[in-house]
Design brief:
Layout lengths: L1 H18 L2 H14 L10 H11 L3 H27 L4 H14 L22 H6 L2 H22 L14 H19 L6 H37 L10
Helix pairs in contact: 1-4, 1-7, 2-3, 2-4, 3-4, 4-5, 4-7, 5-7
C-alpha cells in the first residue's frame, strides 16, 4: 500500500507541473487540430491526442506538452493494473478501478465528462472551448486522480488480510491457511498411533510393573509390622512372668 501511495504522489506532482502549463497544452491542441484539418469535432479521447502528436505536431514545445499529458495518462493506467495485483477486490474498489480503466482507454469518449469543484481546469477555458472542444480532455486526469484517492480510502478501511502480501502470496491462500489452522491444531493434539504389538507389550510391561509395585508395598508393610512387634511386643501387666 505504501508503494501505491508513493506512486500516486509522484503522478500528482507531475500533474501539478502539467497544470501550470494548461494554456500551452490548449495551444498545442489548437495548432495540431489545425494541421490535421480537424477543427469541428472536440478532442474526445487519449488516442486522438496521441494521433495529433504523432502525425500533426510541428514544433518541440507542442510535442513536449502533449507527450507530458500522454505520459501522465500512461502512468495512471499502469497504476490501475498494479492496484489489481495488490488488492483481491471488493465491489466498491473493483468498480472504481473499472471506471479508471475505462476513462484512460485510448478509444473512450471524454467529451461529456467534466471535472467539478475543487478542480478549476474547466474554468480556465473559454465557454466555447469548455463546451465544444477541450472540456473533457482537461478533466480526464483530475477525475482519475480523485478515483485513485477514493480507492486508497476504501482499501485502508478493509481488513489487512484482504490485501495481497508482499512476498507474492494471495489473500486467498492466506485465508485458506487460517481456515486450515484448527484442523492442523486438532491433528497436533491427537496422540500418535501405536502398533497393536507395541500396545500389548506396553500393557504387559505396565502390568508387571504394577504387580511388582504392589509386592514391594506389601513387603514393606509386613517388615514394618514385624519390626514394630520386636521393638514393643504385647503389653503385659506388671509382676512375675514365666
Amino acid at each position: 500500500m505504501n508503494e501505491v501511495k508513493e506512486a500516486l504522489r509522484n503522478i500528482e506532482q507531475n500533474y501539478r507541473l502539467f497544470l501550470q502549463q494548461q494554456f500551452t497544452f490548449i495551444g498545442a491542441l489548437q495548432r495540431t487540430r489545425e494541421n490535421a484539418h480537424d477543427m469541428i469535432r472536440p478532442v474526445a479521447s487519449v488516442g486522438q491526442v496521441q494521433s495529433y502528436m504523432d502525425h500533426h505536431c510541428n514544433n518541440s514545445t507542442d510535442r513536449r506538452i502533449l507527450n507530458m499529458f500522454l505520459n501522465i495518462c500512461n502512468d495512471l493506467s499502469k497504476l490501475c493494473h498494479k492496484l489489481e495485483t495488490v488488492h483481491s477486490g471488493s465491489n466498491v474498489t473493483n468498480g472504481i478501478l473499472e471506471r479508471c480503466k475505462l476513462l484512460l482507454s485510448h478509444s473512450n469518449d471524454l467529451s461529456t465528462i467534466r471535472a467539478k469543484y475543487p478542480h478549476d481546469v474547466v474554468n480556465h477555458l473559454s465557454c466555447d472551448e469548455a463546451k465544444n472542444h477541450y472540456g473533457g480532455v482537461v478533466s480526464l486526469i483530475p477525475i482519475v486522480l480523485d478515483c485513485m484517492k477514493e480507492w486508497v480510502t476504501h482499501t485502508e478501511k478493509l481488513p489487512r488480510h484482504v490485501l495481497y502480501n508482499t512476498s507474492g502470496g494471495s489473500a486467498i491462500s492466506e485465508k485458506r491457511a487460517r481456515q486450515d489452522a484448527p484442523a492442523r491444531a486438532a491433528i497436533s493434539q491427537t496422540p500418535p498411533s501405536v502398533h497393536p504389538e507395541a500396545q500389548t507389550s506396553t500393557s504387559n510391561k505396565d502390568g508387571v510393573q504394577a504387580q511388582g509395585s504392589m509386592h514391594v508395598r506389601k513387603k514393606n508393610l509386613n517388615d514394618t509390622e514385624n519390626h514394630s512387634g520386636k521393638l514393643k511386643g504385647p503389653w503385659k501387666p506388671p509382676g512375675r512372668h514365666a
